[in-house]
Amino acid sequence: MALNGMLPTSDYAEDQPLYHFILTTHVVHRVLPIGAFISSAIPLASTFILRRAAVHPLTVLLLRSNSTGALVSLGLGGAMTLGRMWGRADIEWKDRSWRLLRNTGQAQLDDFSAAGLVAGALLGAAGRGPLPLWRGAVGGAGLGTLAGTVAFVVWKSTLGKKNEQ
């Protein structure tokens, strides 16, 4: 079952329920992999390019950096949605939410990314080292959305095209 299948949708955009929640959640969910990419670049560059001696293992550095990046991404995603949709009529919110739920490619990407988020949160919490549980889980969730997005791109560029023919 697709993740989007769990969200209520209507036959017509005008009747779409939970439209503010759906659109805001979508934007935040799409910003998380970008934040994870940027947040991963910092400890990776410090370790491999600048060759600084790490006090903690690379996994701990990545989880710590990505937990901060995920929280910043949450705030930015909410602000981006608010800034873009400020003053818009409810029908515009409903239409965008409805189209997101009806877009097959977007639904597939969201499914991959959500699966990565859950797996990443569990793995991050388990392998957090000296970090608090929340930092491991949140950092892992951010990395998981990035891994899920990359997996979707790879799948779509290889297997996905074969299935469409």
Features of the shown structure:
0% strand; mainly alpha; single chain; transmembrane; 5 helices; membrane; elongated; 165 residues; DUF1757; transmembrane helix
Describe this structure in words.
- Keywords: Membrane, Transmembrane, Transmembrane helix.
- It holds the Pfam family DUF1757.
- 77% of the residues lie in helices and 0% in strands.
- With 165 residues, it is mainly alpha-helical.
Summarize, please.
Keywords: Membrane, Transmembrane, Transmembrane helix. The protein is an all-alpha fold and 165 residues long.
Please tally the β strands and state the result.
0
Categorize the overall geometry: elongated
Tally of structural domains: 1
Query: Could you give a short account of the major beta sheet?
Result: none
Output mean pLDDT.
89
Work out the helicity level.
Answer: over 70%
Q: Counting H and I runs of at least 4 residues, what is the number of helices?
A: 5
Element-level helix/strand string? HHHHH
- The rounded Rg comes to 18 Å
Tell me the structural class. mainly alpha
Strand content: under 5%
Distance between the termini: 23 Å
Low-confidence stretches: none
Annotate the secondary structure layout.
Blueprint: H1 19-49, H2 58-85, H3 90-102, H4 104-126, H5 133-164
Helix pairs in contact: 1-2, 1-3, 1-5, 2-5, 4-5
Keywords: Membrane, Transmembrane, Transmembrane helix
InterPro entries: DUF1757
Transmembrane segments: 31-50, 70-87, 133-155
